[in-house]
Amino acid sequence: MAYVGADRAPSGCIFCELPRAGDARENLVLEAGPDAVVMLNRFPYNNGHLMVAPRRHTGDLAELSDGEYRGLMDRLRAAVAIVQRVLTPDAMNVGANLGRDAGAGIADHLHWHVVPRWAGDTNFMPVIGDVKVMPQHLLASWDQLRPHFAA
Description:
single chain, HIT family, subunit A, 5-stranded antiparallel beta sheet, 5 helices, 5 strands, about 15% strand
């Protein structure tokens, strides 16, 4: 119901504002470093679904400097390793949607999705009932992952 009733047009940029907004747990921010921010997706595809975004607000991959890109990719690689180690999924989807027409919900700030996958995590519920069953509460995912990211 949180997803169905949520305002889909928030003002501002979650990747810019939430890391500075105070309560990291409430804002689902796992890490806010100099190069990248890592946060859980508030409307996840699976438990542990997180996003990694550069600190600089841009929707254009070519605008990132070499240093920004390296820092971002280092954090993405570390986030994938943490999810693999802590949640032990069977597989993982990692990717970015560049532009609204490619599926980016937030097109003006680059971000990569890290989605842990388990054998059998796709079942009849989304097909028949048009609903996704999440086996873990979002804040429980934050509590489990947060200690593995830098403060």
